[in-house]
From TrEMBL:
The lineage of its organism: Bacteria, Bacillati, Actinomycetota, Actinomycetes, Kitasatosporales. SUPFAM superfamilies: PLP-dependent transferases. Pyridoxal 5'-phosphate binds at T111, S112, F141, P142, T143, D144, D210, H213, Y235, W265, T291. It catalyses: L-kynurenine + H2O = anthranilate + L-alanine + H(+); 3-hydroxy-L-kynurenine + H2O = 3-hydroxyanthranilate + L-alanine + H(+). The keyword Hydrolase applies. Belongs to the kynureninase family. GO terms for molecular function: kynureninase activity; pyridoxal phosphate binding. Catalyzes the cleavage of L-kynurenine (L-Kyn) and L-3-hydroxykynurenine (L-3OHKyn) into anthranilic acid (AA) and 3-hydroxyanthranilic acid (3-OHAA), respectively. The gene is kynU. Homodimer. The modification N6-(pyridoxal phosphate)lysine is found at K236. Its EC number is 3.7.1.3. One of its GO terms (biological process) is quinolinate biosynthetic process. This is Kynureninase. Pathway: Cofactor biosynthesis; NAD(+) biosynthesis; quinolinate from L-kynurenine: step 2/3; Amino-acid degradation; L-kynurenine degradation; L-alanine and anthranilate from L-kynurenine: step 1/1.
Amino acid sequence: MSDHRMTQPDESVLTDELVRDAAALDAADPLAPLRELFVLDGGVYLDGNSLGALPAHVPARVADVVARQWGELRIHSWRESGWWDAPERIGDRIAPLVGAGPGQIVVGDSTSVNVFKAVVAGVRLSADESRTDIVVDAATFPTDGYVAESAARLTGRRIVHADPRELSAALGPATAVVLLNHVDYRSGRLHDLPALTAAVHEAGAIAVWDLCHSAGALPVDLDAHGVDLAVGCTYKYLNGGPGSPAYLYVAERHQEAFESPLPGWNSHADPFAMDHRYTPAGGAARGRVGTPDILSLLALDAALDVWEGVDMDSVRAKSLALTDFFLRCAETYAEGGLNGVDSRVSSLTPVAHEARGSQIALRCAEAPAVMDRLAGRGVVGDLRGPDVLRFGFTPLYTGFEDVRRAAAALGEVLAEVPRA
Ligand SMILES: Cc1ncc(COP(=O)(O)O)c(C=O)c1O
Ligand SMILES: Nc1c(O)cccc1C(=O)C[C@H](N)C(=O)O
C-alpha cells in the first residue's frame, strides 16, 4: 500500500479526512449507545480480546449475590437463588450468541478443562479404534495443544498438527477428532467453520471448535453448520470478568452418547442420591463436573445483560468496519505506512473480510517498546512476543474515534522509537 504514498495527497489532508470520517462513522453507528453500559476511561481500550471491559451494572449485582444470596439466604440459595441450575441457565443465555438452540451449552470450568472434556469425549464418540489421529490446529493457542496431547496419551491416539487452511491433507479414515480455533489468537485469521466442519464430517470425524476469539465478535452458527462439540471462554468479548467460567457445547444429537472424562457428581442424573454408581445426567448437565464457581458465574450472568436485543450481524458489521478503519488510519499515521518496503508495521491479519476476526495484529520489529509507549498514552493493546502488536476491537464499546486516536498514537510512538 505505502509504495503509492508519493502520489497521495498531503498528510494533514488525509488526517483531517480521518477525523471527519471517524465522527461520521460514530454518528451512524447503531451500536454506539451501548458504550454507556461499560466502565471505560479516557484512554482507548483495545484489549477486549484478552479481558473484556466491566459492564457498569455488574458490581451491584455481584454485591447482591454476596450480601443477600450468600450472606442472608446461605445454603437456601442453591435452590431459591437458582444457583444449582445456573450453569445450564446461563448456557442458554450464551446459546443464541453462538447460534445454538437451548439445552446444549453448559457453563463452568476453564476453556482448558472443557477442551479436555471435548477431545476425550470426541474420541469416545468416534468409537473406532482404527481412528488413531487427533488433528490439532498447528497455530493453536498453546493450552489446546497441551491438553490435546495429554488427551491423546490417555486415549491411545496420536497428535497430527495441521494448518487449518490445508486441513484436507491431514484428514482421512484414521481421523478421530479435529480441534480447531475459529479465530487465530495471534494473527486474527478467521477460519472457515462451515467448510472445515463439513470436511471433518466427510472424513467421518468429530469437529471440536475453540470459540474464544469469535464468540461475541461475530456470528458462529453452531447448529446451522452441524458442529459436534465446541468450547469457549467468557472473559473476552462476552465481558464475564477475569477468570469467568468457560462453556461447553455438545450438539443435541451427541448428548446421549457423550461420555465425559471428568464425570463429577454435578453431572450425575441424581446428584443428591449420593449413589456410588455413576449415572450420567441427560442434556447439557452431562458436561458439568463439580460445584460451580457461583460468584464468577453470576457475575457473568449479569454481564450478559448487555446483549439484550443486540443482533450478531450488526456486531459483525461494526467489527469489520472498525478493523477496516484501523488499517486505513495505520496506513496514514504509521511511518512508512503499512505493509510497504519502508514500513515499520505490517499486518498479519488478512485483509479479506471472510478471513478476518475482530482484531488486527501488526508485526513490528520494535513491538515491546512500542506497546509500552502506547500504554503510556492510554492505548491498551497487547504484545504477543517477540514482534506482534495485537489490537482487539470490541464492537459493543469501541468507537471509530477511539480507533483513529489509537492509530495516531501508534504513529507518534513509532516516530519516537528508533528502528531496530
Ligand atoms: C483460543 C484460546 N483457547 C484457550 C484459552 C485459554 O483458556 P483458559 O485459560 O480459560 O483455560 C485462550 C486464552 O486464554 C484462548 O485464546
Ligand atoms: N486468560 C488470560 C489470562 O488469565 C491472563 C492474561 C491473558 C489471558 C488471555 O486470555 C490471553 C488470550 N487468550 C490470548 O489470546 O492471548
